[in-house]
Amino acid sequence: xxxxxxYFVVIGYDLDKRGGxxxxxxxxxxxxxxxxxxxxxxxxxxxxxxxxxxxLVPERKPPxxxxxxxxxxxxxxxxxxxxxxxxxxxxxxxxxxxxxxxDEDDGPDVLQPAQxxxxxxxxxxxxxxxxEVFRNCLSLIYTVHxxxxxxxxxxxxxxxxxxxIPIAGGSQINDPPLCSLTDSLLGCFQPGQDDVExxxxxxxxxxxDRQVIQTPIxxxxxxxxxxxxxxxxxLGILNVLCLFCAALTxxxxxxxxxxxxxxxxxxxxxxxxxxxxxxxxxxxxxLPGKLLEVLxxxxxxxxxxxxxxxxxxxxxxxxxxxxxxxxxxxGGTVTIPECVHISLLPEPLLxxxxxxxxxxxxxxxxxxxxxxxxSVQASTLKVQDKEIRAIFxxxxxxxxxxxRWCLHIIRIHPEPVIRFYKxxxxxxxxxxxxxxxxxxxxxxxxxxxxxxxxxxxxxxxLFDDLVANQAKxxxxxxxxxxxxxxxxxxxxxxxxxxxxxxxxxAMHRVQRTAENAQxxxxxxxxxxxxEVSVQLFIDHAAAKLKTAPPVVKSELKGLVPxxxxxxxxxxxxxxxxxxxxxxxxxxxxxxxxxxxxxxLEAKKLMPAVIRALKxxxxxxxxxxxxxxxxxxxxxxxxxxxxxxxxxxxxCTLQDCSHMDEHGIAAALLPLVTAFCRKLGGGITQFAYxxxxxxxxxxxxxxWEAMFYSDVxxxxxxxxxxxxxxGDASANDGEGDQQQVSALELASEQSRLWPTLSKxxxxxxxxxxxxxxxxQAIHYAxxxxxxxxxxxxxxxxxxxxxxxxxxESVSNSYVTNSIxxxxxxSYDTESGFEDAESSDVANSVVRFxxxxxDKVCNESGVTNEHLKALHTxxxxxxxxxxxxxxxxxxxxxxxxxxxxxxxxxxxxxxGEEFVMEGMRVHLIADGREEATGALGGPPLLPAEGAxxxxxxxxxxxxxxxDPLVGEQVVSRSFPIASLTKEKRLSGSxxxxxxxxxxxxxxxxxxxxxxxxxxxxDEEVASDLAEVFRKHVHKLRYPQHVQGTFxxxxxxxxxxxxxxxxxDKNQSLKTLSxxxxxxAKRTIGRQYVTRKKYSPPTWENRSSLQSExxxxxxxxxxxxxxxxxxxxxxxxxxxxxxxxxxxxxxCCRDYQRLGLGTLSNSLTRSKNEPFRISTVxxxxxxxxxxxxxxxxxxxxxxxxxxxxxxxxxxxxxPVVCWRNSRTKAVLLRxxxxxxxxxxxxxxxxxxxxxxxxQADSTSLEQEKYLQxxxxxxxxxxxxxxxxxxxxxxxxHMSTSGKWGSIRGSGRLSMYNADVGNRLAGKESxxxxxxxAEPYFLRQQRAYxxxxxxxxxxxxxxxxxxxxxxxxxIEVFDIRQVKNSFKKLMKACVPSSTKNDxxxxxxxxxxxxxxxxxxxxxxxxxxxxxxxxxNGSSVMVSLEDGWDVTTQVVSLVQLLSDPYYxxxxxxxxxxxxxxxxxxxxxxHRGAQTLASQSSGxxxxxxxxxxxxxxxxxxxxxxxxxxxxxxKFLAYHYVSNRFRTFLLDSDYERIELGVLYEEKGxxxxxxxxxxxxxxxxxxxxxxxxxxxxxxxxxxxxxxxxYSFISNLxxxxxxxxxxxxxxxxxxWELVRGRQEKxxxxxxxxxxxxxxxxxxxxVWPCYDSLSKVVPDAITKLLQDVQNLESELGQPTEKWKDTxxxxxxxxxxxxxxxSRHSFSSSxxxxxxxxxxxxxxxxxxxxxxxGSSINLALDCESATSTPAAGRPSTSTLYSQFQxxxxxxxxxxxxxxxxxxxxxxxxxxxxxxxxxKHQLRYYESRQDKVCKGVIELAEVESVIMGTPAMGAPKNxxxxxxxxxxxxxRVYNFCAQDSMNAQLWMDSIQSCLSDA
Length: 1882
Fold this sequence. Notes:
There is one protein chain. The chain is an alpha+beta fold and 1882 residues long. It contains 62 helices and 46 strands. The strands form twelve sheets. A seven-stranded antiparallel sheet has the order 27-26-25-24-30-29-28. It is globular, with a radius of gyration of 47 Å.
C-alpha cells in the first residue's frame, strides 16, 4: 500500500525578492509540514514548477498542468504534478516609485502597466505515477477555489493526503461518506462486498467528485498510456530506434519541445520500451532553465529541455565535447553528432523490428498495392502503444534468449549472489563480434537486470514467461510477418490488461469551472489554509492505520523457468557443425596414437590435426579426449608424448580470442595442471609451463568467469551432498539435463530458507563462505602457474608488454626439450637475475591480488579470510618460482630437439653478411596460395633463418609440413625497399607445431614482399633488437653514399659492425672517405682533359662504349654573336660541358632535330629552336639538365627572368617534337601561387601569373608566342580548323587503338579533349577523351595542361593562340595512400575474415587503377593534340612528378623509337634522371627523407607502360620482364642509376662521369643500363619476340578501368628462389647465367622429364619456357655439343626470321610456323583481330587462333607491309636495315682510311658503323638529324688504291665532314640516294 500523495504544496511568486529581470518562487504553504520518515520532502521544487523562470506577465494566461520528475539521492523518483494559474498583483514598481530597486531595474521613461499577473502553482508530490488522477485532483482544488464551492478547502486537501492505494493489483475505490467529517477522515480504506467492488474502488475528495484509480496488475511492467505511440508519431521509426540503441549503449540524449507534458511523455516512453532493462543514469524529463549547466555532465543522461532554451543548450552541448544526441519532438528530427557512433541492433533483428513497427503504425502498408484493398483499421492510440511495446518485449526476448544458462550462482545464503558469464553467452549466440550486444552486456542497465532477474526464486512476470516458454515459438515464427503480428497482438493484450484491468468501470465525476463561459477571475488570491485542521486529518488517518489489521498481500514466488539451453539454439542454426566428422576422427586417432606411444603414426597425422584445430568442434573434441586420459588429476607422459600434447594445446589456444567465448581455454585449464613429465632429480614439469604464450591467461574477466564457474559447481555439490547423503559425485557437469541445475537447487534452498532455524542458517552461510575461500586459494595457485614464466630470470612480460599495466599482461614461456638447443645466451645476463625475478614476482602478485580482492568482495568472503589470502599470495608465488627454477635447470639438460639445418643463401658479388642467420619461422600471411588453402602443398609456415646482408633481407628455410619438407623456401627483398617494420607480440605470432617463439617482426617491402617472421626461442631477444637496429640503419643511411650501390664491395663491417660500441664512428669515417674520393673525382674531371674524347659517364652510353679514334667530335667554331660552348665557357668548364653533350638529352635532341651545338649563322636562322647553355652550371634551375631546348629568338637573360615565375625555377622547355606535324611537347612546373611567394621570388611581379601585365609577365607571353611561331602551321590558315572537326577516319591514318580481347564494344572516337578531365563522364568506349565543354571551337596552337587549382583567374589569350586546359591532378598524398592500400590488397598481412573485403574490393578501395586511368587519359589527350598539330605544354605541380609521368607516356605513345630497348632507356634518362625526378626523396632513400615516406611515382609510370604493352604487344621491343626488372631495381639501390634527385647532385657527388680507371671491381655494375646490356647479350629475357612495329605508329590505348589489368608484378611470387631480378642469384653461378630450367631438371630428376609445377613456388617462365627461348637454347646446346663456336642468341634469331620472311613470300598465302611466331604473320594476326577499325569494317572480330585455317585473311589490298624490326643488337636482317654494306671511312686528322660495315637505319634515323659484318658492338653513330648535305667527294691522301674517283662522297654534319669511299661509283650513288631519301623523309 502507498499514499496517493505525499505532499501538497502551494508555491507563489516572491514579491519581496524581485531583483533583476527574473523573479523567484516561494513556498507559501506545504502539507504536512513535517517530513514523512520514509520519504523526505524534495528540495528545489519551486524551480521545477516554473522551468522557464518566475516572471510577472501583463496578460493572464490559461491554467497549465504538467508532471515533472525529481530523483532523490537513493535513486527514488518523485512525480511532481504542477497545476499553475495566474493571479493579479499590483505593480510593485508603481507602488515603490522611489525605491532604489526600481531605479536599477528600469529607466524612468519606461512605461509600467498598472496590473500584472503572478503565477501560483499547486503541486502534488507522489512516488506513484498517476498523471490523470493528479490532473483531476488539482483541477478540483482549483475549481473549489475559483467557483467558491461550499466545501472547506482543508477537507479536500486532507482527504487527498490521507488517501492510501495499493501499488499494484487492479482498480481501487475510496468512497468516504460526505456527511460526517470523522468518517471521511478515517474511511479511506473500506473493502467492498463482491469481486467487482473488491477490485474497482473510487476515491472522492469530498467535493461531490468520484474517480476510479486503476492500478496495474503487475507493478514491474511500466505504465505508458499513449506515450510510446506518440513518440513514434513525433520522431518516426528509425529515429526512435536510434534513440533506443543510444540509451542502451549509454549515450547522452536530449529532448527538445515547447510542451512540458510532451517532454515527460517522451522520456517515459523511452524508458517503457527499454523494459526489462531499467535506466540507471541521470533522468530529468523537464530541466529548469537555471540548471542548464547539468547538460555538460560527463555521464550519460536522458533530459528534456524547453525549446525556448534551444540556443543556450547548443552552446552548452558544444562545450561538452559535442557528444549529445538531440531529439526535437516538435520538428521530428534526431541530430547525431559526427563524433558519436551509435551501435545499432544486430541484423536481421533490426530489420524484423522495423518491419513489425511499421505494420503496427501503418497497417494499410501491406494492402496498399491491392486492386481491391480491404478496409484496414489502425488500432486506437492506446492499443498501438501496447503493440509497439510488445514488439520491443519480443525483441528483448530474442536478444536475451538463453541468458539464464549463463548465470553463475556463487552464493545462495544469506542473499543469492549471481554473476553473468558474458563470454559464454556471446560465444554460444555466435555474436562475439557484435558491437551493440557487447556494449549492452557491459552496461549498467544489464548489471541491474542480472541482479534483479538473476535470483532463481522470485515472482515472475510477462518477460520471464516470454524468454523461457515462448523462445521456440519466436524462433519458428521469425520471418513470417503474419504470425509475428499475431504474437505481438497477444502480448499487447496482456500489456493493455495490465494497465487497464477494468476498463468498464473507468468513470470520473470531477467538477470543473464552466469551460464555455469566461473563467471567473478569482476575486481573492488563493487563501492561506488552516494547517491545524489539515494536520488533524493526517493524524487521524495515521492512528486508524495503526489499529487496522496489517494487509498481507500474498506474493507468488516460484522457480524462474530457464527456457531451452543455448547449445540447441546454435546447433539448429548450423553454426557449430562446421567441422566434418572426419576431422574429429583425425584428432581422436592422433591422441590415441600418442598415448599408445605410436609416435611415427602421430607425427604423420600431426599436420592434419593442426589444420583441423582451426575449427571449434575439433578444439572441443581435443579437450574431451585429453580429459579421458587424466587419472586422479594427473597424467605422466614421456618426453615425446609431452611435446606433442603441449604442441596441440598451444595450437588449440592460439586461435582462441582473449575472451575465450567458446570455453576452450576453460576446458584446458584443469588439463594443463594435469599433464606432466618427469625430469632428472625427481623434478616434474607440468604442461602449464609451456602454454603461457596466450592472451587469454592475462584477461581478468576470464579468470573471474572460471572462478565463479568452479564456485558454482562446488556450492551445487555442497547442497546435493546434503540432500542425497553424498550419492551425487561432486564432479558432475551442469550440462546434464537430468540433473538438478545449480539455479534450480538455489531456488529450492531459497524457498526453504525461512523454515530453517537460526543455527542452521548460520551453518549454511559459513559452509558457503569457506567454499568460496578455498576456491580463492586454489585459483591463486592456478594463476601463478600460468603467469610465472619458466625462466624467471628472463622476464619477457615486463619487456614486451609491461606487466605493470595488468590489464594487458601477456606472458610467455619456453617449453620442454627445446631448452637444450638454446645458446647459452641467457647465462650472460645472470647479473640481473635477482632484480628481474623480483619484478616478475611483484607483477604477478599484484595481478592475483587484484583478482582476489574483486571476487572475494563480490562473493562475500570475510575480512579475516581476505587478509589471510593477501599474506598467502606472495608465499605461493615465491614457492612456485623456486620450483620453476629447478624445472628450468633440469629442462636445459634434455637432449635438444632435432631442428632443421640452417641453409645459407648465395650472395651477389660485393654483397656481404651484416648479421649471420638467426633461426626464425616464416609465418603465413594473407596470401593463401603458399599455405595450401587453395590446393597444393602448404609451403608456409617454414622454418629456417633470416640473414641480413648489405643489400637484402633474406629468409631461407624449409616448410614445417613434413610432406613438403625437402623443398627449399626463399623469400627476400632489398633493404632499401622496406616500407614498414612492425613488431609482433607472442600472441600475434601463430606458429603451428608450437615451435616456441617469443616475438616476431613483420617487414613489408615496396617490391610487394612481406616477411612475417617469428624468432625462435634460441635467438636471444637482445639479438632480435640488434637485428632491428641494423635493418633501420641500413634502410636509412645518413647519406646516399651509405647505400649499397656505393658501399658494394667494401667490407660490410665498415657499415655496421656486429655488436661493437662505436658503430656510428665507423660509419662516419666511411662517409668522410667517400666524400673525399667524390671530391677528388670531380676535381679530376676538370683537370684531366682529352680533346674530343670525353670519359664515358658511368659507361651509360652503349652507343659509344669504346673510346677510339672514331669518336664523333663537337665542333668549336668561335662566334661572338651568341652564347656558345667555346666562346663563353671557361676552359675549366669545358670538360663538364663535353660530358653534358654526351648525355642522353643531347643525343635525343639531335635525333629529333630540335637543335644542335653548332652556332653557324646559316643554321641558326632556319632552326626554330636552339640548345641553350644557360643552365650549364645549374644556376638557373638545379633540377634541370645542363642543356635546354628553347626558342631560337629567346635570349638567355629572358630565360633567367622567366624562371622566377615557375615553381623550383622549372621553366617551360621543349622535350620532344612530332616529326610529322612539327608540334612540340614542352614541360615545366606550375606557376607560383599568387601571393607572398611570388612577391619574394620576383620583386617586379607581386603575382607572377600570366594575368599580370608587368615585365616578367610580358616576357612570359613573348616566350609562349615564340614557341607558337616555331610551328609551321602557325601561318597556315587551314590549320585553324576546329578540334571537333577531326573524325575518327581522319585520325586513323596516324593512330592505332589498343586491342581489348573479348570487349566487343569499340566505338567511334572523337579527337577531342576529355570530358572526364573536366569532371564529366566520358561516353567513349576506351575511357578516352570526348567532346569537352571548356575548349573553344577554334583550335589553339598551344594547349597548356595545368592544375585546376593553380589556374584560377589566369588571363585567356585574346587572340586564341594558346589555351589553358585545367585538369585535376592527384597529389602525392593520394598516391602514397593508394599505394599503401594496394600493397595491403596484394600482400595482406593476415587472412581477412570479413567476406566483404575480398581482393577486388580492397583493390577498388585503393583507387590505384583509378590513378592509372587518369594518367593514361591525360596522356592520350596530349597525344591527340600533338597529332593534330597543336603544341602542348604540361605544367603541373613542381614539374617533377605527374608532369614527368605525362610527358614520358606521351613520347612513348607518339614515338616508336622510345618503344625500343635503347629508346626506352634514353627516355628514362632524359625525362626522369636529367629532368630531376626526385628518386632519393620519393624513395625515402636516406635518413633525411625518412619522414616523407615512399611514393611510387616511377612505379606508376611503369605500370602505365605495362598497361599499354598489354594492349599493343607487338609495338615494344622489350618484354614485360624488362618493366618488372626496372620496377624492382629502381627501389633496390643495387645500381647508382636511380640514386639522388638531379644531375646537379650526381655531378656534385662525382657519380655522373666516372672514369674507367675508377672501376675497382669489373663484376660490379654501377649502372642498371650496363647490367641490362650485358645480360641481354647472353639471354633473350628482355626481348619481346612479338616485336613487329608499324612505321611512325601513334598508340592510343584504352584507359577505362575495366580495360586495365592488375600487374602481376604485384601479385606473383617464386618461393623456390626468391625474386628473379638479381640474375646471378637466380641462375646459381654467375658464369652460366643462361643455364635453362630444362638442364636443371635433368640434374635433379634424371629419370623422368616430368615434374609438378606449383604456383607461387616455381618460376613458370623457367619451368615452362616459351617455345622460342627453348628452341634457341636447344640450338646453343647442340652447337656446344658439336664443338662449333656458339652463336649469340640474337644472331640465330635474326637468321631464322630472315629465312622465315623469305619463305612466307614464296608461299601463296600467309601461314603460321608451327614452332615460331614470326613478325610478318603477327602483323597479319594483329589485323585479323580487328584492331584496325577502318580495315575490319565491323566492330571487333576477335580471332586469336594461331593455326593456318583460321588465319587466312590477307592484309588490306594496296597497303604495303610496313613491318620493320629494329633491334639494339643490329640484326643482319636486310629488311630491317634500309641499306647496308662496306664503306671506307677516313679517320680523324692524320688517321688512315679503314673499311667499316655501315648500316643505314630509317627507324632510328641513324647511320651506324661496325668493325665487321658479324660485329655486334657499334663503333659509332652519325645522327641523320645533324646531316646538312651529301655531296660527291675527291680522293684524299691515304685513300684505297684502284678505286674509281666517283666512288668518293662526303657527308657534311653540323659537327664535322665525313669522307667516305664505296667499292665503285654505282655503289656510291646508291649510298648517296639512300641517305638523301632518308633526309627528305624526315
